[in-house]
Amino acid sequence: MASTQQVALVTGASSGIGRETALALVKAGFTVVGTSRDASRSTPLDGVTFFDLDVTEEASVSALVEQVIGRFGRIDVLVNNAGIGLMGAAEENSVAQVRGVFDINVFGVMRMTKAVLPHMRALGRGRIINLSSVYGLIPGPYLAAYVASKHAVEGYSESVDHEVREHGVRVLLVEPGGTNTGFEANSTRPDSPLRVYDKQRRIAEQVLAAAVEGGDTPATVARAVVAAATDSKPKQRYTSGPLASRVSMLRRFAPVRIFDGQMRKSHRLAN
Fold first, then answer.
1. Does the active-site annotation cover 14?
2. Which of 29, 64, 160, 189 is most buried, most CB within 10 Å of its CB?
3. Is residue 76 part of a domain?
4. Is 2 a domain residue?
């Protein structure tokens, strides 16, 4: 029997942004399901039911959605948070590394979206909230594969939103800036490093580490997700934190030449 309480499903909920989002959705009144690759090793969270999920496996995605529907009868909100980073110059990253990033960051979003959409359409309502990044709006030297994955999420989300809106479903984006989650430390390094890129790669790593260390808390991003989940007239995009808001504004209104110059200056790249 379907629950009358709205159900939110958060991928990658064992730490960082996912963890804070799950807790914030509990406080907002949702029944919350969180996922991790091995739910038995996840730290218990009050009000959050954990299930196993590997977003790179069709069978795992299907099994999870069936479990949630079987137990709670509905999925009102999906938060696609699971993701990974990859650093290095594009020439230093193998295609296998890039494929791994896209399998989680892009195809994982697509698998989850396709799995929940039939249930949301049956309800006549639902929200799919995809965690993008300011890097979905701007370039990122020495983060090309990660940046490409977030640009893909942006285009996919906006396109699918137009397809499903008439069925009562919205596909929305949350775009954090630097967030204090250990993203830089946990990002994969290039599998084919080249000495010619050593100096600039190290600078890029320092720039990213500083942005993460001085960034917003995961709770700031979680508040944006809750707004996307609950606003009566939701926006297509929710920036999270002051840096993301400034970058989004600059990208829209600053001349390309000025934006390009600022990007190169911040990364100490020669003009």
1. yes
2. 64
3. yes
4. no
Of 46, 247, 254, nearest to 136 by C-alpha is 247
**Catalytic pick among 36, 42, 135, 146:** 146
Domain assignment of residue 1, yes or no: no
Q: E strand or H helix at 78, and its extent?
A: strand 77-80
For the purposes of burial, counting CB atoms within 10 Å of the CB of 177, is it exposed (0-12), middle (13-18) or buried (19 or more)?
buried
Q: Does an H or E element contain 51, and which? A: strand 48-52
Domain count within the chain: 1
Q: Given 36, 150, 157, 238, which residue is catalytic?
A: 150
Q: What is the pTM of this model?
A: 0.93
The question of whether 238 is a catalytic residue gets the answer no
User: Of the listed 14, 133, 149, 248, which one is catalytic?
Assistant: 14
Is residue 114 among the annotated active site residues? no
User: Is residue 220 within 8 Å of 121, Cβ to Cβ?
Assistant: no
Range of the domain at 206: 7-266
DSSP one-letter code for 44: P
Helix, strand, coil: what percent of the chain each, to 5? 55, 15, 30
Q: What is the reported pLDDT for 255? A: 86
Among 51-60, 123-132, 220-229, 237-246, the least confident range: 237-246
End-to-end CA gap in the chain? 63
Q: Could you tell me whether strands 48-52 and 237-240 are parallel, antiparallel, or unpaired per DSSP bridges? A: unpaired
**What average pLDDT does the segment 170-194 reach?**
86
192 is catalytic: no
